[in-house]
Write a structure and sequence with these properties.
By secondary structure, the chain is an alpha+beta fold. The chain has a domain of 149 residues: Butyryl-CoA Dehydrogenase, subunit A, domain 3 (Up-down Bundle), CATH 1.20.140.10. The protein contains 10 helices and 8 strands.
Amino acid sequence: MRFSLTVEQAEFRDAVGELLAKECPLAAVRAAWEAPPGSLDRHVWRRLDEMGVQAMLLPEARGGLGLDECALVPVLEQTGRCALPHPIVETAMVAAPLGVTGFVATDLGGRFVPCAADADVLLLRADPTLRAYRPDEVEIVAVTTVDRARRAATVTAVGEGTLVTDDPADIAAAELRGALGTAAQLVGLSRRMLDLTVAHVTQRHQFGVPVGSFQAVKHHAANALTRIEFAAPVVLRAAYSLASRAPTAGRDVSMAKALASDAAAMTGRTALQCHGAMGYTVEHDLHLLMKRTWALTRAWGDRAHHAEVVATALEGER
């Protein structure tokens, strides 16, 4: 079985990547750290909406593109590469298949809700259901986290909201899509951190030669690349499992999230070490990527949780 992209999927991914490279530089991510609650710049969000990214999983009958996870996951990798400070996973991967559209924030990924004060709609657990709330139906308390571009908050419902689903299978599927979308973003983050590192060690000279020519530096970079290239196809496999409603979808998504988290964590450490002292300064763009990595490896289930899911699934298959 092959999990390579079709020509159309690759072309759309590349088009989104080109847009994000132009419209969402890391300076825009840094600006999101300082923007007041409710004042996140949506310029790039509108451009993505014009391309149909937020509605890729929405049926054509409802104005969407009617695509599946195999098409969306490569696009989400590009949003991870630029550390997009908008809830694209929550909106495109989680909410849209449930029929919830707009700029969506949700608590399905954890206790802290990214972009809560900026959202048009808040998709929240109201056990045993999921309900959609207007901003005036919730109380939002901002919290300080390691990645301030995620603009996290705690959210408490004070209104009735609107029932989205009371089907446990729908909720479980939404959680899987959120974990998979986050895994895709972690792969993108890993690739960007490695690219920054390679550029740095190529330009940085010591003893009259680029530090990237040193064997130890080459080994660090090669090890990081190996982790990334091992995780990336597993993420695509999990996308296929969700799209095809495979019985192993839960196991496959957990494997993808665990391996993508491992790859991002190792690549971040490698990047920091290879950048030397400058890598420790908050002024360097590497910090924006590393801190996003730290946040996403813990969102939608941490590595320990997903490793346990995989182990339990494999034990049941014996």
